[in-house]
Amino acid sequence: MKMKLLYGILLAALPAIANAQAIDYSVNGQVKGLKDGEVELHAYDSRTRVSKKVGEAKITNGKFVAKGRLDGAQMISVNLKPGNWGTQLFVDAGVVNLHIDTAGAQHYDYTQYGMQKGASLTSVKISGSAAQSDYEQYEKTSAGMAKDRAAISQKQLAFIKQYINEKPSSVAGVYMLNQYYLFNSDLPLADFEGLLATFKGSAKQSAYFTNLQTEVAEIKAVLPGQLAEDFTLLKPDSSKFTLSTLRGKYVLLDFWASWCKPCREAIPHWKEVYAKYKDKGFEIVGVTNDNKWDQWKKAMDQEKMDWIQVADEFPVKNMPAKIVSKYKSRTIPLYVLLDKEGRILVKTDHKEEIDQKLSALL
């Protein structure tokens, strides 16, 4: 009987544990320039590029109150209609006051690309959110330094390190690191892991922290010495090619595209390399980043490459190609040299590094 009672208590406690980070919020808004309409709140996942609606309300006489529950403090986007006016704010528990003036907004029109038109609000005042105030301080670190990317990066990272040391449980801190990494993917792995190890409490339980942990795991999976993940892609004639069929050979994965100028400029060099080593147990696999096969085939006709060519896949709309994204590179060309067992020897955007390794091997 006692065991049944204890089991019942534990079951009853599970929802509370699962929602330990959940917060009740209220966004109280005042809008100048839009008397009546609607407001929607969305949360955005930068890894999946998926936006999810988390709240909505009516705008009446220029005012609205949007209430709801979130899985912890987070940055959300605010969209006002009609007009598709947009801004962002960091919501944490309690009441956040939002004062908007539509005057001076920056209008855009992306309808020719199959997207929307609207306006980014520039006159916005937010109060009541400590996380928002902290994030605004982070954004000020780059004020007046628009042309000096290296200096901005250095200043932002210094701010993040100090902030995390002072407030290791703040979700705002892990969000800052998340945003920083989006534009600074060359952050050394040791520094990346060191920063993640500093977080505690609510910060560690946030989706932002989980995303960064996943990123670190994926970086480690493509370090030299790791077994390259096998893949099957289509060749120009639509027949299938599987990477593991080349076991027993040294393989260079050349990630390129018809529209990539440095990729195509490197092709004459790879022709020389291929001629030199193809009879010594070496193969090249070109993996195109083209999503339009006619452009890919036209480039192949022009370049006349003798090695294997396959097309990367784009399984999710507006997401990077499937295979190249696994190698954590945001630019091409990208070169990955594999040994005879399919393990990564070199991953680089410099063809000279590949040359040196092949010379030592063959």
UniProtKB/TrEMBL annotation:
<dbReference type="Pfam" id="PF14289">
    <property type="entry name" value="DUF4369"/>
</dbReference>
<keyword id="KW-0732">Signal</keyword>
<feature type="signal peptide">
    <location>
        <begin position="1"/>
        <end position="20"/>
    </location>
</feature>
<dbReference type="InterPro" id="IPR036249">
    <property type="entry name" value="Thioredoxin-like_sf"/>
</dbReference>
<dbReference type="InterPro" id="IPR012336">
    <property type="entry name" value="Thioredoxin-like_fold"/>
</dbReference>
<keyword id="KW-1015">Disulfide bond</keyword>
<dbReference type="InterPro" id="IPR050553">
    <property type="entry name" value="Thioredoxin_ResA/DsbE_sf"/>
</dbReference>
<dbReference type="GO" id="GO:0030313">
    <property type="term" value="C:cell envelope"/>
</dbReference>
<keyword id="KW-0676">Redox-active center</keyword>
<dbReference type="Pfam" id="PF13905">
    <property type="entry name" value="Thioredoxin_8"/>
</dbReference>
<dbReference type="InterPro" id="IPR025380">
    <property type="entry name" value="DUF4369"/>
</dbReference>
<feature type="domain" description="Thioredoxin">
    <location>
        <begin position="222"/>
        <end position="362"/>
    </location>
</feature>
<dbReference type="InterPro" id="IPR013766">
    <property type="entry name" value="Thioredoxin_domain"/>
</dbReference>
<keyword id="KW-0201">Cytochrome c-type biogenesis</keyword>
<protein>
    <submittedName>
        <fullName>Peroxiredoxin</fullName>
    </submittedName>
</protein>
<dbReference type="GO" id="GO:0017004">
    <property type="term" value="P:cytochrome complex assembly"/>
</dbReference>
